[in-house]
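Below is how a single chain appears once it has passed through the pipeline. First comes the sequence as given, then the structure the pipeline wrote out for it. We keep one example in the README because the format questions we get most often are answered faster by looking than by reading.
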Amino acid sequence: MSSLALAARDSSTMLRRNLLHVRRYPSLTLNLLLTPVILLLLFVYIFGGTMSAGIGGGTDRSEYLTYLVPGILMLTIGGTTIGSAVSVAMDMSEGIIARFRTMAIHRGSVLIGHVVGSVLQCVMSVVLVGAVAVAIGFRSTDATVLEWLLAVGLLALVSLALTWIAVGMGLVSPNAEAASNNALPLMILPFLSSAFVPVDAMPGWFRPIAEYQPFTPAIETLRGLLLGTEIGHNGWLAVAWCLGLAALGYFWSTSRFNRDPN
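Resulting structure:
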């Protein structure tokens, strides 16, 4: 077999291993998935009328639901990738990586298995949260087929970028608890973006924090694609952020993983 075929075979094996871990230990994934669902229901049914009035949509909760869903989907991705950091840290601390290093397998297949598995989990989590949003009234009637395809591509790209960052965080963490704490910003940053309120409605001193971070352009782009509205320069910013974070996470993770163990 060629080296490429061997890498593909070993990566596929590692992917199956990580998916089996998800099936056998579903509590972490379930906990991370419940958070965006609870937030969605909380902000729609408890705060929806007030929040809708605050952003100029009257007191109709459906108006705020339409605004909220893109941010919740991005929050779902950020939360799901925390599980990747925890999984990588567990592998590193429990000795299985040391065992893999002694085996005749493609070195990069371990990380590839984690990354592809995490992206698949992100996609499934987004589908489930999106189904809840549709069940409570979210509709995307103005988006074209092309915009829907672009929205799916954006969600996958964000998942890939954040997963590589999460893998790097898992590799530098001494244990699973530390990995969970280190990756927590991936779930906190959406709260500091335009996910829940427009940037223009924020205090002046806080606007740069919300505007110049990766989640805001990604959320605004997704919102525009799902609602069939203009996205302006946010599309290019979102892609640039994703590519930059993916490259940073990739080189950080591979360099850390390829270090000789102490």
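The chain has a mean pLDDT of 86.

See the next section for the split statistics.
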